[in-house]
Amino acid sequence: MDLPTVSELIRTADPQHWRPGDAWLAGGTVLFSYGSDTLQRLLDLTAAGWEPLAMNDDGLEIAATCTIAELYTFPGAVPPRVRQAWPALDLMQPCCDSFVASFKVWNVSTVGGNICTGLPAGPMTSLAAALDGTALVLSPGGTVRRVPVAELVIGDGRTALAPGELLRSITLPATALRARTAFRRLSLTNLGRSGVLLIGRTDEDGSFVLTVTAATKRPVQLRFPSLPDAAGLGAGLAEAIDAGLWHDDVHGLPAWRRDMTYRLAEEIRAELAAPAPAPEDGSL
Ligand SMILES: Cc1cc2nc3c(=O)[nH]c(=O)nc-3n(C[C@H](O)[C@H](O)[C@H](O)COP(=O)(O)OP(=O)(O)OC[C@H]3O[C@@H](n4cnc5c(N)ncnc54)[C@H](O)[C@@H]3O)c2cc1C
Predict the structure, then answer these.
(1) Residue 279's pLDDT band (boundaries 50, 70, 90)?
(2) pLDDT in tens, 136-172
(3) Which of 6, 169, 181, 274 is the most exposed place for a label (fewest CB within 10 A)?
(4) Ligand 1: residues within 6 Å at CB?
(5) Domains plus CATH for the chain?
């Protein structure tokens, strides 16, 4: 698709440069494939120079400009003691694989661009929401706010970002990274977009968090003080997701997404109820 009305490309990551008619440009895989006949300027974030991934004792900060390729290789590059302390890093590769993307999309598209596009099947939204990620958002007026990623995507292609707001980074807290997790994804075709993507998490205090994405128009999270039984989980899903929230597009009918959500949620519950498997030799 074309961008015939764009007349300027400006290298900046300063929200104060934003004005109506501008769009933040990250990997460009959405901007250049959807096209636009109204945008006037693209504000290019790719030269911002933000460190893609920065760890400290409190957690992991992922820059909005971190590419899917960079995120994918990260768990294999951290020291074994970090991999052992933060087992939830194991979610990164299946979430990246959920793109089923081409070489080009894989290498240029960004974590921030995926979340800001707000697709129900956005796997970076799934990952960040499931691990209680917090978005650092900078506004053109100079204010800074932090928003849970689970609340940043509010509908199909809709986010809670105001015009001109810039997603700077996502922080995943160490408490969530220490959790045991279980991942399930379904698509109607082998290389298709996710129709259902669920992630379950049991924290060190025994609490259980289930995050439903792709099946619903926006992320839905269920929190339990301990792992529920099957009936309790089913009742929680029924309470949290009303009929109008199931997503409906060519990647899956609402009834199918609903049935598969209940089925995969129970699989996750059963997996996390069983003792954790011992790490394979040499896997750390
Ligand atoms: C072949 C193909 C397959 C794809 N498969 C999938 C898929 O399976 N699942 C999926 O979710 N998507 C998919 N996409 C869509 C897209 O590639 C991803 O959502 C990608 O992660 C977008 O990132 P980007 O860096 O390219 O975003 P861009 O195109 O640069 O930007 C996307 C939008 O976000 C805004 N934006 C970008 N960064 C920021 C920021 N830091 N702050 C505020 N706003 C920002 C831009 O202004 C724009 O509106 C696919 C695309 C293609 C072409």
Answers:
(1) low
(2) 999 999 999 999 999 999 999 999 999 999 999 999 9
(3) 274
(4) 23-31, 33, 45, 64, 99-102, 105, 109-110, 112-114, 116-117, 119, 121-122, 166-167, 193
(5) 8-43 (no CATH), 54-173 (3.30.465.10), 180-273 (3.30.390.50)
